[in-house]
Amino acid sequence: MLRFHFIKLTSLFPPKPSPFPLRSQMGSFSTSTSSSSKLLFRQLFEKESSTYTYLLADSSHPDKPALLIDPVDRTVDRDLTLIKELGLKLVYAMNTHVHADHVTGTGQIKGKVPDVKSVISKASGAKADLHVVPGDKIHFGNLFLEVRATPGHTAGCITYVTGDGPDQPQPRMAFTGDVLLIRACGRTDFQGGSSEQLYKSIHSQIFTLPKDTLIYPAHDYKGFTVSTVGEELQYNPRLTKDEETFKNIMANLNLSYPKMIDVAVPANLVCGIQSETN
Amino acid sequence: MLRFHFIKLTSLFPPKPSPFPLRSQMGSFSTSTSSSSKLLFRQLFEKESSTYTYLLADSSHPDKPALLIDPVDRTVDRDLTLIKELGLKLVYAMNTHVHADHVTGTGQIKGKVPDVKSVISKASGAKADLHVVPGDKIHFGNLFLEVRATPGHTAGCITYVTGDGPDQPQPRMAFTGDVLLIRACGRTDFQGGSSEQLYKSIHSQIFTLPKDTLIYPAHDYKGFTVSTVGEELQYNPRLTKDEETFKNIMANLNLSYPKMIDVAVPANLVCGIQSETN
Hints:
The structure is a homodimer. By secondary structure, chain A is of the alpha/beta class. In chain A, 19% of the residues lie in helices and 25% in strands. Chain A starts with 21 loop residues before the first strand and ends in a 10-residue tail after the last helix. The A-B interface holds A 23-29, 31, 41-47, 75, 78, 82, 85-86, 171, 211-212, 214, 222-228, 230-231, 234-235 and B 23-29, 31, 41-47, 75, 78, 82, 85-86, 171, 211-212, 214, 222-228, 230-231, 234-235.
């Protein structure tokens, strides 16, 4: 039986160096018998809010520890069924930020799988079992995610990036939440948003990653599933502009008030547990 | 300038063996400088019909030859823009079958990119530049797809499977159209459908592939993006049943008449060119 005791973010699954590089792949079914770690990765879509939830697991570790990034309340049962079928042990239910367009699934997940720890940034101001800060590493088996601060859409937005090392997935993968979207970016007009911060966050924390780094956003509205740093550097219609032009674009989007914000944000500030009182 | 002359399905890009195995990966941005082939792969979603379109290219070949599987008319511009941005040369616009729920994008694509050849099975009865039969190989650069006959949803359904060889993607990938869906399968009550054939097709042509083979269907309605042969063998609620039970399930689905069928099928029988007269 696994037990988790956290003060600072640590793990019972410390990283173990391996001489074998591994490549990230979509939908890998764990059949590896080598000593190297193997990432099992699934991208899952919630149609109402066009949200992507990501399932990552170290399928070569005997416990098959797994985490979910940006789960949605409506699709919790789907996600937990898949995790069970794949024989994984869910360890973390993580958010990139306090979402305004849907209620996170972390609250329901914690109710159904009591050992799971919710994770969000300290800067988000939201309740969670674990608060992460830039530079933290989140270990699952012999794999890990790095935490990068990418404020601008909200003040507490973070990007989770797969580790840099010989036994970590190649190319790297960046889970950018609503900060960097495919050929777009998150809005900056509420929840402590700032177009200046967003521009700096993306250029300093995401565009400095290797060009083949895979970009996995929290949303896509056009049916794209993935991009790369190289593509966004070259083709993002907003981020390829200079900072002043970018700020002008963001100041003139004239977006409507998010229809879910008054329900979603209060719920998500307590990890999706709407009735939580402490 | 590339030119294409086809009688039987051949290609200007013959396969070249390589000692280096390569792994399929989602959204690979071609940066390879090795002599081995590298698959660039993108999964694209069309929300109205919940259709997946797949883009595959050999990004290590100087011409970066690419193909689209099951393009949708509504998303042709998105797909062609992506292909242009990635620096690919679209060679084939392929269908797994004559779709009843959406109009294929092949007609529009041929109008916008004249060198592209439309591909469909001979058994479909549909018009196309190239008709494939089971056992054909469709080469793009040093990579190729195999054609497998998987009738049952329609009489002309085929499954495209990435090649078996040291220089082909590992794990293999099967583009199953509407035959095998994730935890489901296509209906069998129109267009020459047959539950008996569907059951035999999946068990003989798909479930015999290695268990880690990635299943990429033409549709998903629950937000799944991929499965594996191993998963479907174990968890598909219909195909894990014996043949008689399966046939009973399929005979009692009580599905409504497909709302697009009377528009989509006639259009798709001529590659999505509704005004074509010859």
